Amino acid sequence: MGRLVFLFACSLLLLVADSTASAAIVEHTFNVQNLTLNRLCNRQVITAVNGSFPGPRIRVREGDTLIVHVFNKSPYNLTIHWHGVFQILSGWADGPNMVTQCPIQPGNKYTYKFKIIKQEGTLWWHAHASALRATVYGALIIRPRTGNSYPFPKPYREVPILLGEWWNANIVDIQNEALALGRGPNVSDAYTINGWPGDLYPCSTNQMYKLKVERGKTYLLRIINAALDNQLFYKIANHKMTVVAVDACYTNRYVTDVVAIAPGQTVDVLLTADQPIGSYYMAARAYASAFGIVPFDTTTTRGVIVYDGAVSSTTPLMPVLPAFNDTPTAHKFYSNLTSLVGGPHWDPVPVKVDHKMFVTIGLALQVCPSNTTCQGPFNGTKLSAAMNNQSFVPPNGLSMLQAFFFNVGGVYTTDFLAKPPVQFDYTNASINSNLPLLFAPKGTKTTKLKFNSTVEMVLQNTAILGVENHPMHLHGFDFHVMAQGFGNYNPATDTNKFNLFDPQMRNTIAVPVGGWAVIRFVANNPGVWFMHCHLDAHLPIGLATAFVVENGPTPATTLPPPPADLPQC
């Protein structure tokens, strides 16, 4: 009997040891500073990490602890956001400026430390202060724990594809000028694939991303839209792609020849090199949902896939990309994805809803200050943006999360409206003749949530100053996309469209142009969690809000104190 007990104890110890061994501490150092690059016939100074653009690729496994020491040697205030990471009980590491931390000031440092819990797939990291994420970004790859496998055949190779934007100017100056004048920022000069613009741009024949493949092999492309202000179509000539995950959530396999991807989103696709040996362009250009209303970069970036054995003199085949305003193609892709039920880290749809919200999202106006030159849509106005007619302004002096933890008043309020203050025909352009409706007051309003409560939110686009597809990103949680459509949301009929079995899960939803999307999430993580439009032109003018999630009933569901080196304002 004693021998049996001893053997059982040994087996238990081995299990624990194996579980512990499968989790590691992964440590990186980020030196953020100026970097001079040659692009598009220009020498341009950018802000970059460790002298590379894009920045370092981080690889971890589910269960690992990630530690990143950030040294700010740039001339700008800085934070880093780990886009899509849950940050369970580690909200101090989430990174949005003045929401979870004060910025890391020039010459200072901060260590981000957090555990990767119940997540695997493609995420990314980026600056979350000013417009620095134009060049301060990189991939965050989360593989399964050792011994676990993907829910699809193991690919021959994994390849990050980071889609970005490039300006022949200082992006911080561009944003500051736009904010001062109350207009949109200047459009980018190029798009990029893994930092390279491609051969359609001047002085860029040799600045094109090249992927070498072997015929018959299957590759996992981890596609990330790191662009500041543009949704993108991505295609590879003569090749199909099979979607297997979005935003680090596994999906049922979906075969497509085009990927639509909004800023902040990630899409994992399997690509089989099954075409005749040769060279094939991959290409990306804008999906411009506000075509004819909002200026955008009309250029095309491309890289090239070269099969092993291809003749170098052969001209690569070029894919036919969708039209800039091809909303049907974008919507078909966005709305046809579904979750892999029973797959790793899959969560069923919460049925009981505790907190219902109907939230309008779109542009707005603010009055131009006296003795100021403004270039807003109307005389005497500046461009603004709002959710439920409330334009978000971050606090100064203390972050929202510090105010939450230390119970400091006057930093934010918890009276964000659960429905619009005025009901109107949201997607009818005639509302623009009702001038008072276009102005949104500024404030730092949040929604207070009970721990573990379920939230259902209808996100309704408005036609104020024009309809547009808005990518909305929620920090700290994934959500189920219950349904999406065009026009005004109608609860009497549109609830019948809810997918209660296998809706896609995301952290960033591209709300259809002139339409709506319904999401659900469980507020099971105490702290302050930002929600905002991931178009950089719209975040600083107010298209944001935040959720304040109360602590749970036990120490294991209570936000711990801030780290000692948390930056101070």
The gist of it:
Helices cover 10% and strands 37% of the residues.
Task: Write structural notes for this entry.
Helix content is 10%, strand content 37%. With 569 residues, the chain is mostly beta strands. The strands form 7 sheets. Strands 10-9-12-17-14-15 form a 6-stranded mixed sheet, with no helix packed on it. Strand 1 (25-39) and strand 2 (42-49) form a beta hairpin. The radius of gyration is 23 Å and the shape is globular. The protein starts with a helix and ends in a 20-residue tail after the last strand.
The helix fraction, in percent, is under 10%
Low-confidence stretches: 1-20
Count every helix, treating DSSP H or I runs of 4 or more residues as helices.
6
The overall strand count is: 32
Q: What is the typical, i.e. mean, pLDDT?
A: 95
The assigned CATH architecture of the largest domain is Sandwich
Strand order of the largest sheet: 10-9-12-17-14-15
Binned strand content = 35-45%
Which structural class fits the helix and strand makeup? mainly beta
Number of domains: 3
Oligomeric form of this entry?
A: single chain
Report the top-level CATH class of the largest domain: Mainly Beta
Q: What is the fourth-level CATH superfamily of the largest domain?
A: Cupredoxins -  blue copper proteins
Query: What is the C-alpha radius of gyration, as a whole number of Å?
Result: 23 Å
Shape: globular
CA-to-CA gap between the ends? Answer: 64 Å
Looking at the structure, the CATH topology of the largest domain is Immunoglobulin-like
The main β sheet shows up as: 6 strands, mixed
Signal peptide: 1-23
Catalytic activity: 4 hydroquinone + O2 = 4 benzosemiquinone + 2 H2O
Subcellular location: Secreted, Extracellular space, Apoplast
Protein name: Laccase
